[in-house]
Here is the input.
Amino acid sequence: MTGRLETRRLGTVGYQDALDLQAQLVEERRRGQIPDLLLFLEHPPVITLGVKTRNNRTNIVATDAQLMESGVAVFETGRGGDVTYHGPGQLVGYPIFDLNPDRRDVHRYVRDIEQALIDAVAAFGISADRVEGLTGIWAGNDKLAAIGVRISRWITSHGFALNVSTNLAHFDLIVPCGIQGRGVTSIEQLVGHPVPMADVETAVEAAFRAVFE
Amino acid sequence: MASEVLMPQMGESIAEGTIVRWIKNVGDAVDRDEPLFEISTDKVDAEIPSPAAGVVLEIHVKEGETVPVNSVVALIGAAGEKSESSKSSKSSKESKESKGSEGSKGSEPSKPEAPAPVAAPTAPAPASSSGAVEDLRRTKSSPVVRKIAAEHGIDFTRLEGTGISGRVTKKDILAHLESPASAEASAGSPASDAAAPQTAKRAPASALQVPAFKPGENVRLEKMSVMRKKIAEHMVHSMHTSPHVYSVYEVDFQRIATLREKLKGEYDAAGAKLTFTSFIAAATVDAIRAFPLINASLDGDNIVYKRDINLGIAVALENGLLVPVIRNADERNLLGLSRAIADLASRARSKKLNPEEVQGGTFTITNPGIFGALYGLPIINQPQVAILGVGSIDKRPVVIDDAIAIHPVCHLTLGYDHRLIDGAEAGKFLAYLKERLEQFEV
Here is the structure.
């Protein structure tokens, strides 16, 4: 489907509020009341767990006390993937897309998101790539963006988290995505100077339009 | 009437799904399109709606289990309807239903097997009840079990099942296959000569087999692509067939690099790309002409000398590799080889090769150096008997007339089948090839 794609830049939104908003938008998208939507936002510091790890916190390495102290909340969500961290300086993108009737392929959808992000960071001179078997985009050995997707009746929610100027120390609280032996990085760390969030949003929006429209 | 809930196909390349959560449990009422369960593949979790309204009668796949797409994961029926497998005698409506699905499977249960005259239910009276149980096991066992049974020629209706009402589960049939008794039974009598060494081979292999992962480990399963499977089969077959030996020669590419610089413009104008591979292919064809054993095959006790030189060039693809073949490479000059290599490589990458263009090769050149390897130790492309590996071409200090010069240097490896080719022959071939390249004449 090559349809209209609308973006909404929401600023900082609490994790629970974002969950509620997504649930509402998924329903509206299903009824055809809204077009395909791409939400841009940032979350206050939070660690989230995917469906498979709801009852297994082995990939959170911090103690509850450490979490309290660093002001990081923990959420159990309905998205795919393992544990991840969200926080200020990280561009979170939630596409609310209807994959019906001709884009019903979850692998393709995830690969498309990866492609859009690879294209977007290329605008900042970053050469990121896929790693076979490890969803997300990587700069060398370090993860630049994480992906975790939920699909309900082929309407998508959740999405990606791209590190722009994220406090990377907060990732030490977890084993990102349950993948041992790899690190995390950010656009700022890779280019060596701060990059405005709005510029990244613009680049990602353009890349999503190129890939999905 | 109960309707089956199937594991949905979530994408072209997706062969199975893992159930992460049942939203409804046995006995729960569910509306059509109401979320019934959640599945997970890769980094995607999906909520699957119920295909029908009713009550969940049975759940066949537990949370955390992975099953192939289109497997029956649950049954949904009318409220109060008894689940079929909880009764040994079935209503006429239900038995008609199961007959239908059995009929479509044809004569599957009567696969070749060890003779079992006694076990066959012949008496008319008890047949109906024991037949019904067998029917039930047959029709209610999962497609995975049916497939495994068909592959191994097992009548699984005669196995003891540990599933619901004696249903044979995947675990049961795998346990049966691993038991030594089944190896004999499924090998059967007719081809026992051929089957005997096979089972003998299988036994120690499975004894040494270390599982790739344990249940509950943090892994992701992905079906091998057709190409991947073919490559795997081919490589194992080749290593089993040919005792591989390798020789590596260092070749000075100074002259080739100079020639390439000089001729590049001319070739570009002619619409051809002059690469180092073009030169190597041309020199290799010459060397094969001088040493025809390198271009041979083994057929039993016969050595098959091939008059055509069909040169395979390995091309790396995103998830595998292909070896397109330049037929009658000896009839082409440097320009013709350059064109053919560029054409085949680009069509291999865009998947536009005809099947015959990857067949009939008599010798293969592969280029591990593309990725920077100093040299590679490639596996022979059967039924060929030798393969040339081209290492990276890098500038290095070389000694010429007791002086040090900086020249581009390449390591060429010949992998060869020692059944047919001895080190002396391989050495002579490589020395000839080296000389051809270092003194290349256009």
The helical segments of chain A are 15-30, 64-70, 106-122, 187-191, 197-212. Chain A touches chain B through 26 residues (CB under 8 Å). The CA atoms of residues 94 and 158 of chain A lie 5 Å apart. Chain A has a mean pLDDT of 86.
